[in-house]
Amino acid sequence: MVELATAWVRAESAARTSYGRLLALLAAQDGDIAAAEDALAEAFEQALRRWPDAGAPDNPEAWLLTVARNRRRDRYRSAAHRTGVPLEEAAHLAVGDDTDPESIPDHRLALLFVCAHPAVEATVRTPLMLQTVLGVPAQDIAEAFAVPATTMRQRLVRAKRRVRDAGVPFALPDRDAMPGRLAGVLEAVYGAYTIDWQGIAGPAERGHLAGEALHLARILAGLLPDEPEALGLAALVCLSAARSTARTGPDGGFLAPDEQDTADWDGGLIEEGERLLRSAYRLGRPGRFQLEAAIQSVHCARRVTGCTDWPALRALHQALLSAAPTLGATVSLAAVLARTDGPAAGLALLDTLTGPAAQRFQPAWATRAHLLARTGDRAAARAAFTQAIALTTHPAPRRHLLALRDRLTSL
Amino acid sequence: MMRYCLLLHSPEPAEGEIPAEEIAAFQHAYQAYARDLETAGVLLSADVLHPSTATRTVTLRTGALQVQDGPFADTKEALAGVFVIDVDGPDAALAWAERCPGAQYGTVEVRPTATAVLDGQWSS
């Protein structure tokens, strides 16, 4: 029984830590991700069958790799044409294979670049990374994106077919193409993190991927230690994840960083984030993700200082808005301006948002409502809350906004 | 408040083409969608339709009754469902259309209602 448990633990830990490494290596052979996944799945199945009796090998990773490679080779051989590649001796599969785990080359960075390749549709890049690099089940990815599992599976299958058929190379881009391609990789990893924020899925579903974005960002930072934006992105995800449990109020509503109880924050993650951010700064090339991480860092500093440095936040949000002008960045700056310069300043910035996309942007209306309430214009605040509520389809944030509007009326 | 029809259009699968597991997944998604529509108090009605093979078309346009099997227009995507909602304007209607599971595999047409029968009278 003990052996069985040990073997399972070994398989589990091998699954969690080496899935992406093994898959990247297998897929890099011929660019066929789906075939590599099948071979690896069979290897894991065989491990779960054999290890309980035979004992887990000293190097489970090498064992799994060998079995998966042989599976792939069997497939080739059973195909109509012969490849002429000799099958490895069965003895090679013997338990206790002592190949050095460090000698298994790490192709995960190439795999990340494949997932974010221009040939892969932008919307499926994040799901593809989660599935191939981390081994997250399609079901969990689907739930986080609020899409039926079969729909997500189809998208992933199509993307892998596209990678194979288009001959997307499992290699790092050359120096000229690197900046553009890296931006795509960062964006897709960031996509795993923003699932939390876009409110696509309900809070229950989002929990599935909360840890996975962190995992992915850490892997990327580890693989690109000289790339400040990769470090900045990992810092951002750490500093944000550190406060994830403190973000929801008792009524299910969203709590802004300055309303959260710092006792609920994760000190370890904050320290890790700060370390990453310092390493990024040292490289001397600022960028959007480092700015976003710096904003999180200012919020996290309240844990020590007891107060929020609003002027610092204003400067960072202004810099972020010029680096990455988005609706979200504008709304965030408006909220900070309301703190530093008064609600009228925030409202003036919100007034600059025009166009249909801004009209449909729920956070703009929610922020406007809060700021109008602070100016004392209750009628206008009520109207803005009403519009924010109309644009909110999930029950918990809706309830929260309704309560705020009711409180305004009863004053 | 304004009435909108969310008209779901999608390709029509052959019998047995969609695996049971997928049907269950979509039923689950529609269940959650209906629950949230109800909670928000914006749902007036929601009908998901049988395939267009079950459709019969009636017209007196030529002066005589004509009943024909099949839909009015033979298109790649067929009308598959009608959700009637009562919301605070066009942007809210779009927000609900975006949440509709039908938007994942088809298109959702968002059409404002011009007039509807309320308490036995056509609304103005």
Protein architecture, described:
The complex is a heterodimer of chains A (411) and B (124). Among the domains of chain A are: 2-81; 338-411. Helix content of chain A is 69%, strand content 0%. In chain A, α5 (122-134) packs across α8 and α5 (122-134) crosses α10. Chain A is an all-alpha fold. Chain B is of the alpha+beta class. Chain B has one domain (2-13, 20-122): 2-Layer Sandwich (Alpha-Beta Plaits). In chain B, 28% of the residues lie in helices and 36% in strands. Chain B contains three helices and eight strands, in the order βαββββααβββ. Chains A and B meet through α7 and α20 of A and α1 and α2 of B.
Low-confidence stretches of chain A: 80-99, 198-205
Name the CATH superfamily classification of chain B. Answer: Dimeric alpha+beta barrel
N-C termini distance of chain A = 66 Å
Total DSSP E strands of chain B:
8
Strand residues, percent of chain A? under 5%
Number of helical stretches of at least 4 residues of chain B: 3
The radius of gyration of chain A is 25 Å
Descriptive key words:
heterodimer, A: 411 residues, mainly alpha, 21 helices, 0% strand, B: 124 residues, alpha+beta, Alpha-Beta Plaits, 4-stranded antiparallel β-sheet, two-stranded antiparallel sheet, 3 helices, 8 strands, 28% helix
Short note summarizing the structure:
The complex is a heterodimer of chains A (411) and B (124). With 411 residues, chain A is mainly alpha-helical.
Summarize the helices and strands and which ones pair or pack.
The complex is a heterodimer of chains A (411) and B (124).
Chain A: H1 2-28, H2 33-54, H3 60-78, H4 108-115, H5 122-134, H6 138-144, H7 149-165, H8 178-198, H9 203-206, H10 210-223, H11 228-241, H12 267-282, H13 288-300, H14 302-305, H15 310-323, H16 327-341, H17 343-351, H18 356-359, H19 362-375, H20 378-390, H21 395-410
Helix pairs in contact in A: 1-2, 1-3, 2-3, 4-5, 5-7, 5-8, 5-10, 6-7, 8-10, 8-11, 10-11, 11-12, 11-13, 12-13, 13-15, 15-16, 16-17, 16-19, 17-19, 19-20, 20-21
Chain B: E1 2-11, H1 20-40, E2 43-48, E3 56-59, E4 66-69, E5 77-87, H2 90-99, H3 102-105, E6 107-112, E7 117-118, E8 121-122
Antiparallel strand pairs in B: 1-5, 1-6, 2-5, 3-4, 7-8
